[in-house]
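Long-time lurker, first post. I've been practising inverse folding by hand and with some scripts of my own, and I keep getting stuck on stretches where the structure tokens seem ambiguous. Below is the full token string for one chain I'm working on. Before anyone asks, I'm not after the true native sequence, just a reasonable design that respects the backbone. If someone could post their per-position residues I'd love to compare against what I wrote down in my notebook.
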């Protein structure tokens, strides 16, 4: 069956932008041209994605008369730091990039977050585009303008809101993605079902095998639906004054897992899956979910190829890491909890005894 491109928009007034989803988009420079402020781009990628897709994207843009430079960074979450960010600035200055030059992030969420942050800072702000090549980046990180780097004491703690001018999700790039990375992306897809779309959750349960087999139609549907959710939430609450925090289901625990285990040991999506099961356990202990609902969630994560049991960091390490979470207000932690499968809320009003029991349970089960 012929698969055509799907387009949706993120509605943010004068900073609105389209998200294009479909096969072969890296070859379609025409989609990018209307969003360039000058016929000049710098593509930021890494040593894994560069050899696969940099030449294709560069060639398409050059054929359309665009001057293309590039920066190739080392690959990995462990490199999402100041030093790597500085490598981008070195390249931009060395190449005499200008304020109207566009940065293009070609890669997964790590490249997207680094590139977006570099674009937010260079000459006090330059335009950038996202060309996400992982499922996680296509369903989540490329949309919404959260950019940044990790600090040894806390995940994503240094950064800026800076919206891209275009998201170009070429679904063909998912063909080369390792299975473990595909599963990591499914964690964020399942998240949308859990926090705001029970019908989508049921669709995921019915279609998980197709998604893991990389059925193109199923993947495009999942990416499109996920981006619709992300776009709606971001349009309503760009700077996370309220409902955007719901997108952090499982992330408070998950970020503690990522930092505690050493960045890169657990993939972000894996940490989110195990962290979401901790949030489910806390929700159950507070009388919000029943055991059958928790088990239904675990079954879906397992079928997605994801871990459902968090590692044994110890209660003190979890509490320490979670105390640096961006949702902390007035020194008090806040958690995204589930009211039911398909509805979440943010609460500072959690039961500390239930939280300790959840963390003790995680430690005991690891
Ligand atoms: P990643 O960027 O590390 O990519 C995963 C791996 O796949 C890397 O080794 C990468 O080089 C490789 N890869 C990428 N595309 C490939 C392809 N097409 N074929 C083969 N290999 C490919 O990880 P990720 O899961 O994409 O992103 C995780 C990051 O995103 C985390 O740092 C997380 O904090 C961040 N994130 C940000 C947001 C946001 O809103 N800004 C949201 C969610 C996650
Ligand atoms: N991934 C969480 C957010 O964009 O808000």
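-- Answer (accepted) --
I ran through it position by position. Result:
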């Amino acid at each position: 069956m012929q698969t055509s491109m799907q387009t949706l928009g993120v509605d943010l007034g004068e900073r609105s932008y389209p998200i294009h989803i479909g096969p072969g988009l890296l070859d379609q420079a025409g989609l990018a041209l209307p969003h360039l402020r000058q016929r000049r781009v710098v593509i930021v990628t890494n040593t894994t994605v560069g050899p696969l897709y940099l030449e294709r994207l560069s060639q398409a843009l050059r054929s359309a008369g665009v001057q293309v430079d590039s920066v190739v960074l080392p690959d990995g979450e462990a490199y999402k730091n100041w030093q790597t960010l500085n490598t981008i600035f070195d390249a931009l200055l060395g190449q005499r990039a200008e304020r109207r030059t566009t940065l293009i992030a070609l890669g997964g969420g790590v490249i997207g977050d680094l590139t977006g942050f570099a674009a937010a800072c260079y000459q006090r702000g330059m335009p950038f585009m996202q060309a996400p090549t992982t499922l996680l980046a296509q369903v989540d990180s490329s949309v919404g303008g959260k950019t940044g780097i990790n600090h040894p004491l806390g995940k994503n703690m240094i950064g800026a809101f800076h919206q891209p001018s275009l998201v170009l999700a070429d679904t063909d790039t998912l063909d080369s993605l390792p299975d473990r990375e595909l599963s990591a992306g499914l964690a964020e897809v399942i998240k949308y079902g859990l926090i705001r779309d029970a019908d989508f959750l049921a669709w995921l349960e019915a279609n998980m095998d197709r998604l893991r087999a990389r059925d193109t139609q199923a993947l495009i549907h999942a990416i499109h639906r996920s981006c619709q959710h992300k776009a709606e939430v971001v349009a309503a609450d760009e700077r996370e004054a309220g409902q955007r925090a719901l997108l952090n289901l499982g992330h408070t625990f998950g970020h503690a897992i990522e930092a505690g285990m050493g960045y890169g040991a657990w993939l972000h999506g894996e940490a989110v899956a195990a962290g979401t099961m901790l949030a489910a356990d806390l929700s159950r202990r507070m009388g919000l979910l029943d055991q059958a609902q928790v088990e239904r969630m675990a079954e879906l994560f397992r079928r997605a190829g994801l871990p459902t049991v968090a590692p044994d960091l110890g209660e003190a390490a979890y509490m320490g890491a979670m105390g640096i979470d961006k949702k902390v207000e007035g020194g008090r932690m806040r958690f995204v909890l589930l009211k039911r499968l398909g509805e979440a809320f943010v609460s500072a009003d959690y039961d500390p005894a239930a939280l300790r029991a959840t963390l003790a349970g995680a430690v005991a089960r690891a």
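A couple of notes from the structure itself: The CA atoms of residues 248 and 310 lie 17 Å apart. Residues 216-236 form the longest helix (21 residues). Happy to go over any region you disagree with.
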